[in-house]
Amino acid sequence: MAQLFRRTAAAILSLGSLLLLPGPAVAQDVYPSRPVRIIVSFAPGGGADIMARLLAVPLARELGQPVVVENRAGGGGVIGTEACARAPADGYTLCLGSTTTHSIVPHLQQGLTWDPIRDFTHITNLGFQPNVLAVNPNLPIRTMPELIDWARRNRGAAYGTSGVGTSNHLAGEYLSRQFDLQLNHVAYRGGNLAQQDAAAGQIPMVIDQITAMLPLIQSGRLRPIVVAGSRGRSALLPDVPNITEGTLPDFRVESYQALFAPAGLPPAVVNRIYTAVVNAVNNSDVRQRFVEMGTEPVLNTPAEFSAYLRETSPMYQRLVEISGARVN
C-alpha cells in the first residue's frame, strides 16, 4: 500500500512539473499572433506615408495578420521616431524611418532621448529616393561644369530646398564646399515652394526629390542638371547624368526610406519580418509602384543596413556641422 502511494505521489509530481514547463503553445505565441503597426513620423499623404501604406497590404498577406499604419507626426519626425524606440521589442511595432530621422536629426537636434544606432533594430532599407539639382531654364547652364563655372562667377547664388537639415540642404552644402561655390541656402516651408520660385526666376536653382520635381521638369519650367545620388541614373530621368559621373565620384548624401523596430528584437522575429518585407515587395506590384515614385528599391539585409548607417553617420555629422544648422 505504501509503495502504491509513493508511485501515485511521484506520478502527480511529475505531471505537475510537466505542466509548469514553458511549452510553445502556452508561454510563447508564434509570431505574429496579432496585428502589427507601422509608425510613420510624418503626416498622411507624404512620401513616407504612401510607401508605408503600399507596403502594408502585401506585408499583411505575408505575415498573416493585419498591418496598420499609424501616423505620429510632429517635431520634424522626432515624435514618431521616439514612440518607436520606446515601444516593446516584440515585433508588433515597426516604424518607417528616413535619412532625416535616423541620419540627420540625431546630429542636428540636441536633447534627443534616443540614438539611431543603439535604440533601434535595423530591418532593411526599402529604397533610395535621389534628389535632383535643377536650374531656371533661362540660365546659361546645361551641365555640371557650367553650373560650377557660373556659381564661381556669381558668388552667393541661392539654392532652395524644403528646409534646414534636409538631405537636399546637406547635398547643396556638400556641393558648395567641394567646389568652393559659396552658395546661399534658402529654406522654404515646402519643396514645392522652392521649385516654384526657381521656375519663376526668384532663385536660380533648387534641390528636391525627383518625383516632386518631375512636373516642372517635364513642362520645361525647370532644367535638370544632375541626379544627386550614388546609384547611377534614374529611370525617371535617364538622360540626366548622375553626380558621381565625373563630378563627385564619392557622393553619398542620399535620401532613403527604411524599416526599423525597437532595439532588442529577437533574431528569429527580425528574420521573419525581413523575409516577409522582401516577399511583399517582390511578389506584388509594390516594387513597380516604388519605382514610379522615384524610389530605387534596395532591401538589403539587417546586417548590411546596420553597417550602412554606422558607416555614413560620421559623414552626416560633418555635413551638419559644416552647414551650421542646429535645432534646440
Automatic annotation (TrEMBL):
Keywords for this entry? Signal
The residue range of the signal peptide is 1-27
Q: Which InterPro entries match?
A: BUG (IPR005064), Bug_dom1 (IPR042100)
Family named by the database record: Belongs to the UPF0065 (bug) family.
The record's annotation in PANTHER family points to:
BLR1237 PROTEIN, TRICARBOXYLATE-BINDING PROTEIN
User: What name does this protein carry?
Assistant: Tripartite tricarboxylate transporter substrate binding protein
